[in-house]
Amino acid sequence: MPERDFFLAAYDVADQRRRAAALKLARGYATGGQRSVHECFLTPAERGELLLNLSDVLDDRDDRFVLMRLDPRARIYTLGAALPTCDPPYFYFD
User: Fold this and answer.
1) CATH number 3.30.70.240 is the correct assignment for the domain at 5-69
2) Strand order in the sheet with 5-12
């Protein structure tokens, strides 16, 4: 099984139609998140695919996207009513 890294994907998209398309793409790779910030466990190939697909959707002049790799050794903190992540040892792919 390929090695996966933990990423936060966040975007700020000006146009509603592009925002909906970016949300759909990001959620396709996400295991959790809120609105425009998503938690993703990605292989290098999935990371490249996500970036390529988003580059087709987003406008360089008006939209912003960031994909940050997080340290897997870091402790998870939650605020408010959030729950700690609890992913199963498997993932379903369509």
Assistant:
1) yes
2) 30-34, 37-42, 5-12, 64-69
